[in-house]
Write a structure and sequence with these properties.
By secondary structure, the protein is an all-alpha fold. The protein has 2 domains: 91 residues, Fumarate Reductase Iron-sulfur Protein, Chain B, domain 2; 283 residues, no CATH class. Helices cover 68% and strands 1% of the residues. A two-stranded antiparallel ribbon has the order 1-2. Strand 1 and strand 2 form a beta hairpin. Helix 8 crosses helix 9 and helix 13 packs antiparallel against helix 20. The longest helix is centred in the middle third of the chain and has 31 residues. The chain is globular, with a radius of gyration of 23 Å.
Length: 389
């Protein structure tokens, strides 16, 4: 079977932060020291070799970049200083653009002008929308749901959720088709199995296998369990920080998109109210985790923080500002400062909406779906390859 070669692949990947892969001589040290590498999915060595020879199609089908959490061991011990961990990070950016059928991811990752312009444009549209359509700004009390009724915000949130989910899930489907590969690779079903499953096949694999492995997707999505398998104390701290950001973001996303009618209310909840406690947890988790990452990148205190792509900074800064301005809305409400509450609320959404629109389906937050999805698909593949019917 022939493999198409892209001779410019290594050059093109420099736009995504892959700078030192050409000096790798495939000694295999990176794969040997990696806690997450396995016999069935060896990395980073294998995908770096694909990159060097221009095997673009094989890279597109490789699950390994999504199994790497960039603990830094491989980069710290590389005898050629090829920085294999950063190569894997750059490959994730590159693969995100290949799975994205709209082309927006590629523009975001390769053009700083587009990156900044898209964020400013969406933010400006949000600000213009509030300027034209906001409700009365009562000054005798804080009446956020008069200024911006939560039922209206809820409808807009659900529309946005539907649109973003369409893009993200359609791109996730493209990842699924590539990673699962040719259905012919899986053992042929017996005649009785064909009769049993009939139309219950997906890419040549019986649907019950997908269902039996789905709990792995849920587990990895909510716990980032694989990251916790990286062994040293420093790496466990990285996992904990990563978990704080992910859980904080996921919970607050559910609150402000799905539960906005309970989260955005003019009456102040008791401090022991579960919704208020969840809000405080999300604020702490995100601000602590993102601040930790920002300081690390500024100081370059760890191998994983030595190199920063512009998209890394965009993600961290926007997430920090979104969380901080959201916290200020809460503070101004507690202090009974109506005008300050309204203005900071608009600023908050002018930051939060661009972050969601750009980051969730096209940039860094795609990892939140792609990583557990690949972990899940690897379990499905393993079961399918050894299944006998």
């Amino acid at each position: 079977m022939t493999t198409a070669v892209d001779p410019d692949l290594l050059l093109n990947l420099k736009k995504f932060g892959v700078k030192d892969a050409s000096i790798c001589f495939n000694c295999g040290n990176c794969t040997a020291v990696c806690s997450l590498s396995s016999e069935s999915t060896p990395f980073p060595r294998k995908v770096i070799r694909y990159l060097q020879v221009g095997a673009k199609d094989k890279l597109l089908q490789s699950p390994e970049p999504w199994l790497c959490y960039y603990c830094g061991d491989c980069s710290e011990t590389c005898p050629r200083q090829a920085n294999p961990g950063e190569v894997m990070m750059g490959l994730r950016r590159y693969l995100t653009t290949l799975y994205d059928w709209t082309g927006i991811s590629r523009l975001f990752y390769t053009s700083k002008v587009f990156e900044i312009f898209s964020i400013l444009l969406v933010g400006a549209l949000v600000g213009l929308g509030f300027y034209r359509f906001h409700g009365p700004m009562l000054t005798d009390r804080v009446a956020l749901n008069v200024f911006a009724p939560n039922r209206v915000i809820e409808r807009l949130d659900l529309i946005m959720l539907g649109v973003l989910s369409f893009f993200l899930l359609s791109n996730g489907l493209r990842l699924f088709l590539k990673v699962m590969g040719d259905p012919a690779q899986y053992p042929a079903l017996s005649q009785s199995a064909k009769q049993q499953f009939q139309n219950r096949l997906l890419r040549g694999i019986p649907v019950p296998i997908y269902l039996s492995q789905f709990k792995a997707f849920v587990l990895h999505f909510f716990t980032q369990k694989q990251f916790g398998a990286c062994g040293t104390r420093t790496q466990r701290v990285q996992w904990f920080v990563h978990l704080l950001i992910m859980t904080g973001y996921t919970l607050v996303f559910l609150l402000v998109v799905v539960g906005i009618r309970w989260f955005q209310r003019d009456e102040i909840y008791s401090i022991w109210n579960p919704i208020r406690l969840i809000g405080y947890y999300c604020t702490f988790a995100i601000l602590y985790g993102v601040t930790y990452a920002i300081i690390g990148r500024l100081k370059k205190s760890k191998t994983v923080y030595e190199h920063s792509h512009s998209s890394d900074w965009a993600f961290l800064i926007m997430l920090w500002l979104t969380t901080f301005t959201g916290f200020l809305v809460h503070v101004f409400r507690l202090l009974e400062m109506p005008m300050s509450t309204y203005y900071i609320y608009v600023i908050h959404l002018m930051i939060a909406v661009p972050m969601l629109v750009v980051e969730v389906p096209f940039a860094k937050w795609t990892h939140q779906l792609y990583r557990p999805l690949v972990q899940y698909l690897m379990g499905v593949r393993e079961q399918a390859l050894k299944a006998a019917y």
